[in-house]
User: Fold these one by one.
Assistant:
Number 1:
Amino acid sequence: MPDKRRRIRRISMTGVPVFDESFGRFTGYRGTGTDVTRQYEIELRARKIQEVLESSLTELRERNLELDRALQEARSAARAKTDFLGKMSHELRTPLNAIIGFSEMSIQQAFGSLNARYLSYFRDIHGAAYHLLNIINDILDAVNIDSSKISVEPRAICLSDVVAQAKSIVAVRAEQNEIDLSAVDISREWVVLADPGRTRKILVNLLNNAIKFTNAGGSVGIDVLATDAATVAFTVWDTGIGIPDD
């Protein structure tokens, strides 16, 4: 019913029938009316909130199902990637071993003498092939990373030999860019305990980066310093654009 301001009010009515005592005729009801508008509005809001919550819960369940499906797909994709990388790494080793083997035979001049230039080329091929083999081994490490089976085999190595191998791998690129690598050379006194393959890879990455950001006519080099009685630090430097101080 409307109130004086024409606002709709909801009234809860309770009553009992009333009869005329003389004739027994029904005359109406006697009872009370309670304004339950606020209670009704509260219940209405509660029902709407409940509907929203039920809708949200349904949506959340659907999202969870979608996430479960996505997780299963991601796991399947990860397994497929791992299998692919593992198989490809093993497949790539076969031709690489052939390249390494033939280059070693050529370096040893097993079938006749070679002039100095060709001998130098075969040494570079041999070094690059070994570097690529180490990259493939790193891929296999990545395949096994979940099981923490990364292989690191430190041993006593002459750092000068590793630097020379890394230099031979990047020499062609440096020559094409007219960059001087004569300073990529260190004394043979530095003997360190390290994994030779991984150390060579670090050096190749640093040298490639230095060459990339050095203009033609520039130079790249390596400095070595004993930081304490047990540690050696080497620095790859270049005459390129440098890195901002900040």
Note: Residues 152-246 form a domain with the Heat Shock Protein 90 fold (CATH 3.30.565.10).
Number 2:
Amino acid sequence: MPGDDEKTTVEVKEGTPAEPRKGGNKLLLMGGIGLGVVVLGVVVALLVVKPMMSSSEEAGSSGETTVTTAPEKSKEAEKPKVKKAKSTGKSESFVYAIKDIVINPAGTGGSRFLSVSFGFELASSQLAAEFERRELLVRDALITIMSSKTIAQLTDAKQKEITRYQIKKRLSQILNTEELTAVYYTDFVLQ
């Protein structure tokens, strides 16, 4: 019949389940895996990294006595500590700590950072008092020297020794003393 439209009929049987969408299951699986990775990262950070960070602050030599001032209630970070090192016969020395200097190395455009702490071996308690009095100048010198270094200089052992010498020389100039006997890296994290 010319002009009649053909009609198509589709027969649907009752009781047959519709096919499940396969894309939804994959999305749910990937979301579950992603959530698991995030939870695992948080657990590792809390149980592994945080205790490691705090244990490095607590580590110290046995036989050392701590000489500190009473803690002040202020916005400042933890005060540096002056420790009296073991007496080795003729003279005694003191170690002054400056912690948590965070800088961006030269040439990184702010995409990398270095967290570093120092210990300074001093020949007298008077120099320890001078360090404490002029701490802001000392921190400024440390930040200036460390932020002028490139990643290559910060990771090379020979360059670290050169940097240690530069720090010792600069701080001796600032404090106008020759009683600064050694500079130690007590924490060095490059990200």
Note: Residues 79-190 form a domain with the Tetrahydropterin Synthase; Chain A fold (CATH 3.30.479.30).
Number 3:
Amino acid sequence: MDHVLIVEDHAENRNLLKILLEVNGYRVSAAGDGLEALAAARRARPDVIVSDVLMPRMDGFELCRAWMQDTALKAIPFIFYSATYVRPEDEQFALALGAVRYMIKPQEAKIFLAELSAVLQQWTGRPAPAPAAPLDEATAHAMHELALARKLEDKMLQLEAANRRLRESEAKYRRVYDSLQDVYIESSLDGSILEIGAQIAVLSKGQFKRENLIGTPLYDLYADPLQGNAITEAVKQTGRAIDMDLSFKNRDGTIIPCSVSATIVRGADGEARIVATWRDISRRKQAELGSIGA
């Protein structure tokens, strides 16, 4: 039974790979980083090593370098299996260090197993080939630094792309709720305004502006605090409030009747907040009074 040493710092990935290999007839040992891998290999010599690159303490490139400098280990074929270092230059560096394969995660199980089997068949009973031109310490260090720099560059590009998508999403989100006739409001559970739509200027006939209300108490806009308390309690108890009455107090003291619908959601930061819409129902109220008078 061939013995595979897998080196992977993420426990879930390590366990999944271990299970895949074991159900396919391999004996498996595992390590969480390069230092653990060296110790494990010296305790129980494997037939092949499969290593991630990005790991704490000693990464895969450093491990491969140390592996090839160990006379007891260098004959054991070294396979890289990485999801983070995926550029051709990373593979070239790995092969220059002495690796026999460089696979990119994720691979289909049958492809991964076929590559592993091919390596074992090719090198069982004879040493894996040493690099044609072994890297000296200075060159290996320089190439490792370049690999780290490429990884940082990739991370920065990914972060920039993620931020761009977030900005585009926020802009689209803002366009949607700015096009609504109702006033959109987000508040914390204690009543602080986190976001409010530009329609507040329409509702208040220009007496309030969005930018002046962010961070202020939502309750300051209620003519009757009891109504605000009733809405908040309804949302906290049942998760939502539908078409509840609210008297909006304008800056000049005039009252505008509104209908409020609200619910609790969790923001991107994981914090619960109340999301609500306010609708001006002045005409509806006037119609109701007119029908009563008639």
Note: The mean pLDDT is 84.
